[in-house]
Amino acid sequence: MRVRVKDDVCQGHGMCLLACPELFQLSDEDGHAYLLSEDVPPELEAKVDQAVRGCPEQAIETY
Amino acid sequence: MAEGDPARCPVDFDHFSPEHAAHWPARWAEMREQCPHAWTERHGGFWVVTRYRDIVAIAQRPEDFSPAKYQDPETGESRGGLAIPELPGLRFIPNEVDPPEWSGYRTFLNRRFSPKAIDVLKGRARQFAAALVDRVIEQGHLDIVDDLASPLPALMMIEIFGFRPDEWRSFSDPFHKMVYTPADAPEFLETMRGLDYFARRVDEEIALRRVEPKDDLLGLLANGEMDGRLLTDEEIQNIAFNLMGGGIDTTTALTSNTLLYLARHPDLRSRLAANPALWPVAREEFLRWVTPIHGLARTAIRDSDVDGWEVRKGDRLLLAYSAGNRDPEIFDDPDAVKIDRFPNKHIAFGAGMHRCLGSFLARMMYETMVTEVLARIPDYAIVEADIQPYETVARVNGWVRIPATFTPGPKVGAVIA
């Protein structure tokens, strides 16, 4: 599984950081999310799924 | 439901009414089900949008639905903006500004409120929270609003701006009162005048910073360059009011409602006191359930539609965040507090590009205050006969007072300085 954050849609709600801090961090500039890695290891798939479902802006996609 | 064009789903609805303040969850549920976008003739006429997906869709379309306030060139009157009814005077910057102007202001301010910037302030917040509890802990009684929930955000905003800590009360009182006084009440104009003092203090400090720069927010406003130029005095005032107005009473309402709820649910309170690691997820649930800012407005800047619902140019819309946050299409058992609810895609901070600038600060202040209370006065009991909610929840869903009693304890020696 791979994941991406649509930067023009993200508004920095920070719910992805709560769901999966192993992969999602928030920028020091504007609080928007960025990824430490686009590759999702199998053991983090459930957490990334929570991040996708928890984003109010629907800014996170897996593929 | 009221009479009128059935396509507009007319209702007689006033978000300022005491009836709404007392029964809003049930009222929202009824409107969401029967008329998720309902037209009321109150306050000049506006749509009430209660379904989560419509609120987010509108908030994400700033090219169609704008929160901007502008002056009518013919009458000089303010039109548009985030408040229904429209508030005279100030235009909040950056909240009531459209792109491309908006992005300059927001970029200018973002760094001051980023997660990292807020992390640096944690120690100060803890010191203030400890000092506020110190002030009351030996006497065994307090007012959750006036002694704890209201002062901490005011102290922190003053710290960030760079005012003196001993000024907090003169700033926090008018902002607090402005929020719960109805616009047609005689005291409202008086409260607005009370804000003049804040405006004057901003001007005075800005003048000082221009002579002697400092790295506080006032220093940034005085001497920082946005797109290669300094801010005007009017821009500085509009930014200062936006930040103070957004920062002062909102976290207060969240903290007050939470501490009241926990006193009424002592098992939950004990569980949170024993496991502070539960707070980050619990915090988001209280944000959803309380939704301090119940709703904010947009103006349709062209004819358009939202999922088949036709909106005409000039129509005003109230995005009822508190209704969206109780939408059963998104949240199971939405009226219940479930502190382990996760994921939790609430919109207590709004959505789209105008989402709250201070959300990381709000979360940090809130967690600091509630954990300080649960650690030091864990047995507080509400004096239920004396609690008083805001008369209206149109602006903020908060409390005038929540008296409580508790077993006295020792001071830790923290000071506000």
Reconstruct the topology from this structure.
The complex is a heterodimer of chains A (63) and B (417).
Chain A: E1 3-5, H1 15-19, E2 24-26, E3 33-35, H2 45-54, E4 60-62
Antiparallel strand pairs in A: 1-4, 2-3
Chain B: H1 18-34, E1 37-40, E2 46-49, H2 52-59, E3 65-66, E4 69-71, E5 78-80, H3 101-110, H4 115-120, H5 122-137, E6 141-143, H6 144-149, H7 151-161, H8 168-180, H9 186-211, H10 217-223, E7 225-226, E8 229-230, H11 233-248, H12 250-264, H13 266-274, H14 279-290, E9 296-300, E10 304-306, E11 309-311, E12 316-319, H15 321-324, H16 359-376, E13 381-382, E14 388-389, E15 399-401, E16 403-405
Parallel strand pairs in B: 2-12
Antiparallel strand pairs in B: 1-2, 3-9, 4-5, 6-16, 7-8, 9-12, 10-11, 13-16, 14-15
What does this structure look like?
The complex is a heterodimer of chains A (63) and B (417). The mean pLDDT of chain A is 97. By secondary structure, chain A is an alpha+beta fold. Chain A is built from two helices and four strands, in the order E-H-E-E-H-E. Helices cover 24% and strands 19% of the residues of chain A. Chain B contains 16 helices and 16 strands. Chain B has a single domain (6-405), classed as Cytochrome p450.
Question: Features of this protein?
Answer:
heterodimer; A: alpha+beta; Alpha-Beta Plaits; 4 strands; 19% strand; globular; B: alpha+beta; Cytochrome p450; 3-stranded antiparallel sheet; 16 strands
Report the portion of residues of chain B in β strands: 5-15%
| SSE succession of chain A | EHEEHE
Number of domains of chain B: 1
Would you give the CATH topology of chain A? Answer: Alpha-Beta Plaits
Beta content of chain A comes to 15-25%
Mean pLDDT of chain B: 94
| Spatial strand arrangement across the major sheet of chain A | 1-4
- Placed side by side, the strands forming the largest sheet of chain B appear as 1-2-12-9-3
Q: What's the overall average pLDDT of chain A, rounded?
A: 97
Question: Radius of gyration of chain A over alpha carbons?
Answer: 10 Å
Major sheet summary line of chain B: 5 strands, mixed
- Count of discrete structural domains of chain A: 1
> Which parts of chain B are unreliable, with pLDDT below 50 for 5 consecutive residues or more?
none
Give the fraction of residues assigned to helices of chain B: 40-55%
CATH class of chain A: Alpha Beta
N-to-C CA distance of chain A: 6 Å
